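Write out the 3D structure for:
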Amino acid sequence: MSGRTAEGGSTEVRAPRGHRAVVTDAGAALPVAPPTAGPVAILPAGGATALHEEAVAAAGGTVAPLGPDTAGLVWLDPRDPAGLADALDAAPSVGWVQLPFAGVDAFASLIASHGDRVLFTSAKGAYAEPVAEHALALTLGTLRVLQKRARARSWATEPEGVSLYGRHVVVIGAGGIAQEYIRLLAPFEVSVTVVRRSADPVPGANRTVTTDALDEVLPDADVVMIAAAMTSGTSKLFGRRQFALMKPSARLVNIARGGLVDTDALVDALRDGSIAAAALDVTDPEPLPDGHPLWDEPGAIITPHQADTPEMVAPLLAERVRRNAAAFLGGAGTGFVGVVDPAAGY
């Protein structure tokens, strides 16, 4: 039986008799029990939209309230892992859960504890276009010192700003958002280095290095864009040492998870000139409290985790639901997108 990864590669895997097998982005083969004839539930009920229901119907399934015969579950609340745990306890026949975001760190322990009987899929890659677009906007904003211009109350006379053309951009991560960001960078004729778990080439990148080489590529970076998954191994990936290695003219952009960056170290790096600017759609803590030093830091641009809005993502999530519902209800074990590896945490 052949499982297909979200990046399009296929790997030959074996599953127990009566089970299917899928392959995660991290390369793990997960056995998946065949679906029951039960319906798909969409929770929380208040978050369900006609788009989600139509997606399940288009996949050949039916939508019904959560019950003992529920086969699949579309979970729409990214901030309520306890609620999902209660739902799985109430519906032990659930064999597939679709999560609403690419980042699943809030559900990591739940996925680890239920991964032997439930296939979890995320939205990784589904929102690549709007998030990458926002990352590019933040990149250009910091290079053109818009963080200072937006706060100005008088006409500036000192020329400032840097062109993106011909710069060296380091991209942390190689998922859908990172790949779309690299595609958007192409007209600027930049040099791109990707930092990821493996050294496998990434389309559009000039080179790819593994995560243990991060410190080696930082000194030459004009822009560092973080689009990596948040796991126990990537927590505070950027700290004082990394900022000290960067150029004083370098810009940091983070559209992944706030916890990937040591916030105190970032504030200090901006204040002492270790880096020129930071553009953040995510922070740690989040929401960023009123009065936090980052709000007043002239080198910071902060957007409130809105690289994608509900209006942007609703049709994209609906399409992800349709594809994965079809894969689950079809029983072939192929076609799943965004499969989460319980061990890797993404």
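The chain is about 30% helix and 15% strand.
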